[in-house]
Amino acid sequence: MSDARSEAPMLSVEDLSVVFRTDKERVHALDGVNFDIREGETVGLVGESGSGKSVTARSILGLINDPGRIESGAIRFRGRDLTDVGWTDARGDIAIVFQDPSGSLNPVYTVGNQIREALKIHRGLTGRAAREEAIRLLESVGIPDAPGRVNAYPNEFSGGMRQRAVIATALACDPDLLVCDEPTTALDVTIQAQILDLLDDLQRESGLSILFITHDMGVVSTVADRVNVMYAGEIVERAPADRLFSDPAHPYTRGLLASIPSVGARGDRLLTIDGEVPTPNEAPTACRFAPRCPKAFEACDHVHPKHVDQGGGQSAACLLFEEEHTTPVTPETGRPGVADTHSAAETDGGTE
Ligand code: SF4
User: Is residue 260 scored above 90 in pLDDT?
Assistant: First the structure.
């Protein structure tokens, strides 16, 4: 977790909506996503599989391809909207580490070759200078005997070493922002801890900003300064990490935290959230979480929740916190539509 942070956002994702079009339908993968990342900060993006985390990561990198497209919103990196000016100038400033290190490395090229390729493209290094920098990068991510292993192929590395090599390749771009998309999910817990320590060390040394994407609340609690909780293509809660874990507001966040297995709870049934994340091509409900929410009340079926400030940098998009329910949806789309006000007093809901 970072200590040195400025208040100015390095990256601002503003009202981002991403749609995938097929012959038959338009599938909304992201719907009005907002969050930001400041200099030297680690921001977590958590949620179950299918919540839109990876589409968010790919959007930031400019990797949404046909039939998908960014339909609206902005991705401002150092003040410039990349959806407007394009990603070319920012390519070396933002790097990504994917979940599966085996899929990220080309098996027919040596690890050193792949790092040198990134050094050539992004920093213009070739020959001996590139080889020496590749070795330095491998050393910086904790690869033992880096001068000897720089000529090894990915299959000669263990899973943890492959993920370190992927991180070294990402660092070869000399990025300011590292997007880590489930970087430890494919690793066992001891290697996972080593990779988390490595990212923490790299951030302290270089002042990197990190977007850390995971479905694992335990992992995000150890790495993030602030956390955004995502559900069905929307951010439903955002808060400083310590506050999110000590005082979660949104019923979905509470469900996720209650689902974390506890070593001391032997013999007890593991709590889960009933149901599943809706697929993007399902007709959205007014509150996306309503079909699974233990706190749902009448208005949740026809009013789209807005973010409500909870103080201390925390906000939650839930009608339990709205006094007047004024963001109804049109039944056909499940998205905000024609005004129809419902008072909280007319419902039997209430804040816990
Ligand atoms: S708006 Fe209603 S259904 Fe949605 S999370 Fe809040 S209480 Fe649950």
Answer: no
Domain presence at residue 83:
yes
In a domain, 193, yes or no: yes
| Helix, strand, coil tally for the chain in percent (to 5) | 35, 25, 40
Which of 293, 308, 322 for mutating ligand 1's site (highest number of atoms within 8 Å of CB)? Answer: 293
In short, whether 105's Cβ falls inside 6 Å of ligand 1 is: no
Range of the domain at 184: 9-235
Supply the pTM of this predicted model.
0.87
SS3 of 267-306: the string is: CCCCCCCCCCCCCCCCCCCCCCCHHHCCCCCHHHHCECCC
**Does 149 share its domain with 252?**
no
Distance from residue 224's CA to the centre of ligand 1 (Å): 26
**Cα 36 to Cα 30: distance, rounded to the nearest angstrom:** 16
Q: Does the pLDDT at position 144 exceed 70? A: yes
- Cα-to-centroid distance, 275 and ligand 1 (Å): 15
**Per the domain annotation, does 59 fall within a domain?**
yes
As to burial, measured by CB atoms within 10 angstroms (0-12 exposed, 13-18 middle, 19+ buried), residue 336 is: middle
Question: How much distance in Å is there from the Cα of 295 to the middle of ligand 1?
Answer: 6
Residues 46 and 171 in one domain: yes
Task: Name the average pLDDT for the chain.
Answer: 87
| Ligand 1 contact, 300 CB (< 6 A) | yes
Residues 209 and 78 occupy one common structural domain: yes
Query: In angstroms, what is the span from residue 17 Cα to ligand 1's centroid?
Result: 22
Both 185 and 301 in one domain: the answer is no
| Mean pLDDT for the stretch of residues 62-74 | 95
Q: Mark whether 209 and 340 lie in a shared domain.
A: no
Nearest ligand 1 atom to alpha carbon 305: 1
Count of the separate structural domains present in the chain? 2
List, as one string, the DSSP characters of 54-67. Answer: HHHHHHHTT---TT
Residues 222, 172: one domain?
yes
Decide if pLDDT at 12 tops 50.
yes
Residue 199 domain-assigned (yes or no): yes
Q: What is the DSSP letter of 328?
A: B
Mutate to test the pocket of ligand 1, among 229, 287, 303 (most ligand atoms within 8 A of CB): 287
Together in a domain, 301 and 167:
no
Quick check: 347 pLDDT over 60?
no
